[in-house]
Amino acid sequence: MELKKEAAETPVSLNYKRMVVSSPFQKLIKSKKRFTLFTTVFFLAFSLLLPILAFYSDILTKPLIEPFSWGWAFAFAQFFMTWGVCHLYIKKAAQFDQIAKDVLEAEEKEMGRDGQ
């Protein structure tokens, strides 16, 4: 809702071609891609490790604390990993939103200087 309200308050037509090639915007896109790739690879690797270890080794059958095996520990660790990734995503998304807002504000100022 806030974005729509802010958009209604600023009737300035932005130069998107200039904004897309700007250094701050390019840094934003690069950091978002890097974050998305890293978290996706980590999530998939961690998630797929459980069935791989379960089917192709006996590591997860060894006792950790009676009556729990390493398999149970790894399965429960996946819940914590998912919550951790979600928490990290929320923090990073807030940073990305702030950077995007800064890019838009800089473009609005630039449009004001150009007299458009």
TrEMBL record:
Keyword Glycoprotein: no
Any Pfam family: DUF485
Annotated InterPro entries: DUF485 (IPR007436)
Keywords: Membrane, Transmembrane, Transmembrane helix
Source superkingdom: Bacteria
Positions of transmembrane segments: 35-56, 68-90
Protein known as: DUF485 domain-containing protein
Organism: Priestia endophytica
